[in-house]
Amino acid sequence: MAEKRLRTGSDFTWRDMEVGNIVTEAGNAGLRRTGDWRSRRPITDKEKCNKCGLCWLYCPDAAVKLSEDGYYETDLFYCKGCGICAKVCPRAAITMVEEEEK
Amino acid sequence: MSRRIGLEASFAAAEAARMADVDVIAAYPITPQTHVPERLAEMVADGELNAAYVPVESEHSAMSVCLGAAAVGARTFTATAGPGLEYMHNVLYVAPSMRLPVVMVVVNRALSAPLSIWGDHSDAMAVRDTGWIQVFCQNNQEAFDMTLWAFRVAEDPKVLFPVMVHFDGFHLSHVTEPVILPEQEEVDRFLPRFHYPFALDPDKPMTHGAFGAPDIYSEAKIAQEVAFRKSKKVIIKGLAEFADIFGRHYHPVEPYRTEGAKTLLLTMGSFSETAKIAIDRKKKRGESVGLINLRLWRPFPFQELRRELKKAETIIVFDRCSAFGGPGGAGCSEIRSALYGESEKPRVVSFIGGLGGRDMSVEDFEYVVDRGREIAAVGSEELFATGGIRGEVTAIRG
Ligand code: SF4
Ligand code: SF4
Fold first, then answer.
1. Tens digits of per-residue pLDDT, A13-60?
2. What is the DSSP letter of A29?
3. CATH classification code of B3-199+212-246
4. Nearest CB neighbour to B223, from listed A8, A14, A27
5. For B82, which of A100, B33, B123, B277 could close a Cys bridge (C-beta 3.0–4.6 Å)?
6. Is B210 in Cβ contact with A20 (below 8 Å)?
7. Which of A69, A47, A43 minimizes the C-alpha distance to A55?
8. Helix axes B362-378, B271-284, angle to 10 degrees
């Protein structure tokens, strides 16, 4: 969704810069894909998860979302692969895997 | 009625800030700038000026407070000198990139070591690429005039760049001269209320100072460069408006008795006035000389300089700073590159002197012109020579 609206495509030149590089739109940090420098991704094993929500609480990028079934899901658009969720998970339900392994 | 009173340049600049009715002053005292914030603190304490005076713990903080103040639309002023200017160096870059029209007086001081509290232009030259508009003053009247003018230009919606007003430590800052102070009504006519179009406002949220990843940083810098160069139009217009109201005429490049002169001496700041006397003496003896006072240092007035300089045979540039291992004085290297593209160009000779408060007498400037002509006549590869220094360096080659 968001990426299209982030104005850094090839048609965006210096002439399109706002005066003083001001970001006129409030709350648009969500448009920035922070997931694109991730080298490892978290994989959650629902069998082990007890829905405690610590991964959600600790994720520095708010990339962990609560799903309708009460489990937590990683939004890979934002997840930068820091591994904090895996570290704090009391059930060792999250494993970090290399991106190329998938 | 305007008043003519005796004032140090420091007090003159403080008066200009007061008459501009600044909202925020954040400053840290450092010799020889001390009298500027001291006088303003006094004005605020005595109720002569309704402003927030923030006594910060360093120059780095002074400039940081100024950024925040300007970002909410406050008319913002600070002053510093030499090492203080260098201490705020990394924050200096932020004001122009964020287009925050802070006005700062820099009472020019040498940089250590040896420790020197006295004047030269090392501080100004070290910040030449920070993106601030920079002007030099020859006397105390100009310290007042340029400070007032600085607000007018910085805050123009077509500009929105910060301005540094340079005047020489001690030679001006601590010397009392007659200064004409205008009527408040005239000042108000010249300088309308500041309305910052991008003022931070909780009702209209926006982000100032976001980071710029590699996919945007270059574009941001080029946009800044183009806007900065365009500001010269308003700089000149502002000087014309100043002349209309106050009757004193200033220009980016100011020729003095240059008509038909074969040799031109170029100086900046208070030394220009001494050098003018040397030019007068030489003219009396029938020598073909003239002087250029360079007022606007950034954006560099390439066109105006070319116009004034290209007909001369020899340009002698006197710089009050060292440029170790470089191409002579900072001012001179700019002037050399300004003229490089001309098919017929004068010889440019660089002189360095007046460092760390060393005075330059009229005779010293006569020597500089004589020696400069000799160097030019030989046509050698000298990068620079010195003036007014014991054991003159007559030729440093590259
Ligand atoms: S790896 Fe880091 S960024 Fe990704 S979901 Fe876990 S805590 Fe959040
Ligand atoms: S921290 Fe572990 S156990 Fe707790 S919700 Fe997240 S994945 Fe499940």
1. 999 999 999 998 888 888 888 898 899 999 999 999 999 999 999 999
2. G
3. 3.40.50.970
4. A14
5. B123
6. no
7. A43
8. 70
Q: B162 near B133, Cβ under 8 Å?
A: yes
Beta carbon of A64 within 6 Å of any ligand 2 atom: no
Among chain A residues, the shortest Cα distance to B204 is held by A26
Q: Whose CA is nearest to atom 4 of ligand 1?
A: A79
> Which candidate, B105, B28, B13, B24, places its Cα nearest to that of B66?
B24
The nearest alpha carbon in chain A to B157 belongs to A19
Say yes or no for a CB contact (<8 Å) between A27 and B206.
no
pTM here?
Answer: 0.91
Q: Does the beta carbon of A1 lie under 8 angstroms from any beta carbon of chain B?
A: no
Whole-number percent of chain B with pLDDT over 90? 91
* Best to test chain A binding among B97, B159, B161, B216 (most A CBs inside 10 Å): B216
Quote the CA–CA distance of B157 and B160 in Å, as a whole number: 6
- Segment B163-182 shows an average pLDDT of 98
Fold of domain B255-387: Rossmann fold (3.40.50)
Does residue A55 have its Cβ closer than 6 Å to ligand 2? yes
CATH for A33-102 (3.90.76.10, 1.25.40.10, 3.30.70.20, 1.10.10.1020): 3.30.70.20
Judge whether B129 is closer than 8 Å to chain A, CB to CB. Answer: no
First to last CA, chain A: 23
Q: Whose CA is nearest to atom 6 of ligand 1?
A: A85
